[in-house]
Amino acid sequence: MKELPWEVLESEALADEPVRIVHERVRTHTGAVLDYYYQPKPIQVVFTLPLTPRKTALMIRQYRHPTREFLLEVPAGKVDPGEEIEAAARRELLEEVGAEAGRLVAFPAFYPQPSFNAAVFNPFLALESRVVRPPQLESGELLETVELPLPEVYRLLETGSIKDASTALTLFYARPWLREHGYCQT
């Protein structure tokens, strides 16, 4: 086991569901003692930009209580224990917009906010996405599907109308691939 620069003096779980949150008292590399609250590993999350054969994006407008706003996002969700990441991307797409995808293109995974959580976000592009049934939402989800032309999605991104950072990063990751394969000029 590698030696860490901070020593954990005390640790307690504050919550286990829907996500695990811990409180640790740590001694830093400078000797300062801090209280640190965070979500530990392992948390895997998928974010999927679904594109239809018409080169439109199946986005969602979802209520996010901490912001008190409806945010324009790509379908996303946690990877279930034992579930493959690609399978989770397909499941979330089906649950949130009722769509199935042909090919999935994976982009580099990233830590969205490593200062207080160890979640790994996995962005995907879902090609040939087709709506096959109504969404099957969880009890706490309030969202609607919004189908937008791809150039409009990128216009919204560039004007700051897409405020969800993980959606924005998924769109930024997807843009070079979309340009290279003739899906968009933006």
Entry keywords:
186 residues; alpha+beta; four-stranded mixed β-sheet; three-stranded antiparallel β-sheet; 3 helices; 12 strands; elongated
Q: What is the 3D form?
A: elongated
Order of helices and strands: EEEEEEEHEEEEEHH
What's the alpha carbon Rg, rounded to whole Å? 19 Å
Instruction: Compute the average pLDDT.
Output: 93
Strand order of the largest sheet: 7-4-10-9
- Tally of DSSP helical segments: 3
Biggest sheet details? 4 strands, mixed
Query: What is the strand tally?
Result: 12
Determine the fraction of residues in helical runs and give it as a percent range.
10-25%
Which runs of at least 5 residues are low in confidence (pLDDT < 50)?
Answer: none
Strand content: 35-45%
Global structural class: alpha+beta
Question: What's the end-to-end separation, in Å?
Answer: 47 Å
Task: Give a structural overview.
20% of the residues lie in helices and 36% in strands. With 186 residues, the protein is α+β, with helices and mostly antiparallel strands. The chain has helices spanning 85-97, 150-158, 165-180, and strands at 7-15, 21-27, 33-38, 44-50, 56-64, 69-73, 76-78, 99-100, 104-106, 120-126, 130-131, 143-149. It has a 4-stranded mixed beta sheet with strand order 7-4-10-9, with helices on both faces. A 3-stranded antiparallel beta sheet has the order 1-2-3, with no helix packed on it.
